[in-house]
Amino acid sequence: MISDKMKEYVVGSSLIRAMFDDSKRLISIYGKENVYDFSLGNPCFPPPEEFKDTLKKIIDETDPMVVHGYMNNAGHESVREKIAESINKKFNTDYNAGNIIMTVGAAGGLNVIFKTLINPGDEIIAFSPYFGEYDSYTANVSAELVKVPPVLPGFEPDLEALEKSITPKTRIVIVNSPNNPTGVVYSEETIKEIAAILRRKEVEYGLPIYIFSDEPYRELAYDGVKVPYITKVYDDTIVGYSYSKSLSMAGERIGYLLIPDEASGADDIISAATVANRILGFVNAPSLFQLAIGECVDMKMDIDCYDRNRKALYGGLTDIGYECVKPEGAFYLFVKSPLADDIEFCEKAKEFGLVLVPGTAFDCPGYIRLAYCTAYETIEKSMPQFKKLWDSVQA
Amino acid sequence: MISDKMKEYVVGSSLIRAMFDDSKRLISIYGKENVYDFSLGNPCFPPPEEFKDTLKKIIDETDPMVVHGYMNNAGHESVREKIAESINKKFNTDYNAGNIIMTVGAAGGLNVIFKTLINPGDEIIAFSPYFGEYDSYTANVSAELVKVPPVLPGFEPDLEALEKSITPKTRIVIVNSPNNPTGVVYSEETIKEIAAILRRKEVEYGLPIYIFSDEPYRELAYDGVKVPYITKVYDDTIVGYSYSKSLSMAGERIGYLLIPDEASGADDIISAATVANRILGFVNAPSLFQLAIGECVDMKMDIDCYDRNRKALYGGLTDIGYECVKPEGAFYLFVKSPLADDIEFCEKAKEFGLVLVPGTAFDCPGYIRLAYCTAYETIEKSMPQFKKLWDSVQA
Q1: What is the pLDDT of residues A150-185, one digit of tens each?
Q2: Which of B295, B317, B352 is the last residue of a domain?
Q3: What does the pLDDT read at residue A18?
Q4: How many Å lie between the alpha carbon of A319 and the closest alpha carbon of chain B?
Q5: ipTM of the complex, rounded to two decimals
Q6: What average pLDDT does range B327-356 have in this prediction?
Q7: Mind listing the pLDDT tens digit for each residue in B377-393?
Q8: pLDDT value at position A10?
């Protein structure tokens, strides 16, 4: 009864989610205390306590028609103004409310921009390994996802391959740094090199090529590493942001798009993206959370807890013998699978109560992803299991 | 720079929204007290006071990771269970959590179902006049919207025309009762006749034809009129519900889909719709509002205020000489345009500070829509303006 496209999706439905559901099954078999779930990027620390107070204050003190009613499809203007000001302060830019469109998370924002810019048959470039949902979002607009391989072992993008991948049909290059699944943060140098390539190709083909900077992990960078603000390096940049991870509210679906005036056709894109927000069925980002974000625009989560997890998991696993690049951002570890077949290895891991995601889900077979947005105790207690798993697969 | 499809959308962007923006322009010219905005279906009465308390109680007393984190893409199971129970109690049905998928409003639900069921080139039937966004949602899945004309003056669907409109490509018939824009509520008799036609055609073509019952206005029915529950009349029914109007929270984007076990391929549809919710970028309905709805599932708005508006506006306008069908539901009045050209008439109306929406936006030229979810005073004070407008267009 269901559409042909959906049949494929349902069969191949996100390996990550499948693992998440597996976790429940394992708990029912082994008991909660014997299952170590590293599958899903669901933050394990609550939003800051002040955020709670902000929500209640808005509910108590603001006109309920403003709190819960329709607003402009782009979002509450006052909130967009505050976000623009916050960005300006942080990155020495010059945006205003008109450059911001509130979205239903970063996923909503990506779909809005794809709908806005992409004609069927256009090409969108992603750097492997990449967030598997990019495949679905690309298919939603009947475009083709072109994959640029990484340079190993550090998982930087292969810039030569990028240049060769660009065709007159290339409309968007997705940059996701800090990266899911590798945790790698691209340096300013790398961003500048990407920008130089795109500028050359824009001239060669006489068409704009946009960077979509997918930034749900922007605030999660460790060891003092800097996450460059790409709009300052490359004019045709559109930023997609989400508060899902930075303020631990993944279920509330709140984020924004930033479309700078410098981007080619910015006015048209802003108008069209506002309409796309509506006709894709989002209509607008959830209102109360827009207003709360407006009040908390410079609120920061304490990321020390993630950093502690990162060090414990990275240290523990590499001590056992696992190989992986030390992540500088996000809350993922991308580990070389001790078995060539990463899916088989993840199946094996379940026997030890370990729920991992195969790299295949990110177009990178031979690796596995661990989300360390878990309790610290989960990491501590899982180490003997990781050791047993390691031993079990040594020939 | 923007995609070809979006170019059309932006140019032809919703007449309703254009009117809404016009309202702001008129206010800046004539002053707020001289502009009477009947354009947008944005509820003018706040959610019940208890809803406020429920939100705050959840924020205070529930684990913030449950309140704000990811859950199953279909929504919180406890909430879906409560909604199913509430439906069962009201309509003597037998649903459970598995039949419910929480959505980003009714617009989200419609897009999820279209994505789930529709192949490019399939046909979706709507009864004119209809909510103009159906055009966009249909285009999102590259389907064709087939329009069945109304029987005038009562705006009941033309059932003979319906039967003739059905082809082997027909997958969905949208039923929207209480209706936007006419306010008409279809009787159980009408629903039974529609069901009989669809059943015949299902047999003839050997394929299921689904009714999508678009029910954001279900609770808004006056004079004791009954709104039939279509799943009880026709097995292949999918219900799309929204709390936007019934609890005055249009900006919060919260609703649900009901997919009964009796519908053909129900299991597949439920799985696929859950995946579609994710890959369209909704991911899940906003979490806090899901939980709040779970606590308020039987909460009722007082609709007397809308009823009072309805009587005042209907009585006032027909006294002046305007012709319209007396609406039994929703909060719209669909009035015959005194000028043959409804767009011209709406332009004329602006000179009197009246913001109306041309019927053309609902595939029904020659009429105008008035949303009476306004303050009562707006209706009272607008009457002399409607009289002047009437006089101004009499030949």
Answers
A1: 999 999 999 999 999 999 999 999 999 999 999 999
A2: B295
A3: 66
A4: 32
A5: 0.95
A6: 96
A7: 999 999 999 999 999 99
A8: 79
Token code pair at residue A188 = 């300013």
SS3 at position B127? strand
CA–CA min distance B49, chain A (Å): 10
pLDDT over threshold 70, residue A16? no
Residues B286 and B369 both lie in one domain = no
Domain count within chain A: 2
B6, pLDDT greater than 90 = no
Task: Say yes or no for a CB contact (<8 Å) between B253 and A104.
Answer: yes
Question: How many A×B Cβ pairs under 8 Å?
Answer: 241
Of all residues in chain A, the one with the smallest CA distance to B49 is A64
Q: How far apart are the C-alpha atoms of A114 and B229, rounded to whole Å? A: 38
Question: What is the extent of the structural domain holding A320?
Answer: 4-47+302-393
Length of chain B: 395
Say if A58 falls within a structural domain: no
Reference A314, options A225, A392, A222; nearest CA is A222
The overall average pLDDT reported for chain A is 95
pTM of the model: 0.96
Question: Does A327 lie in the same domain as A281?
Answer: no
Query: What confidence score (pLDDT) does residue A337 get?
Result: 98
The reply to whether B12 and B150 lie within a common domain is no
A60 part of a folded domain: no
Question: Shortest Cα distance from A198 to chain B (angstroms)?
Answer: 16
Per-residue pLDDT, averaged over B216-225, amounts to 96
Closest-CA residue in chain B for A41? B70
Q: What is the predicted pLDDT for the residue at B42?
A: 85
Average pLDDT of B225-251? Answer: 96
Looking at the structure, tell me whether residues A38 and A84 fall in a common domain: no
Same domain, A326 and A351: yes
Q: Which residues contact B347 (CB under 8 A, 6 or more apart)?
A: none
CB contact under 8 A, B251 and A282: no
Question: Between chains, do A68 and B268 touch, taking CB under 8 Å as contact?
Answer: no
Looking at the structure, do residues B239 and B312 belong to the same domain, yes or no?
Answer: no
What residues of B are in contact with residue A141 (Cβ under 8 Å)? 3
Residue where a domain terminates, one of A240, A275, A295? A295
A33: phi then psi, degrees, rounded to nearest 5: -75, -10
Residue of B3, B256, B373 to mutate, interface with A, max A Cβ within 10 Å: B3
For A29, what's the count of Cα atoms within 13 Å in the CB-facing half-sphere?
11
Å between A92 CA and nearest CA of chain B: 27
**Residues B347 and B245 placed together within one structural domain of the fold:** no
Sign (positive or negative) of CA dihedral B114, B119, B120, B124: negative
Mean pLDDT of chain B: 95
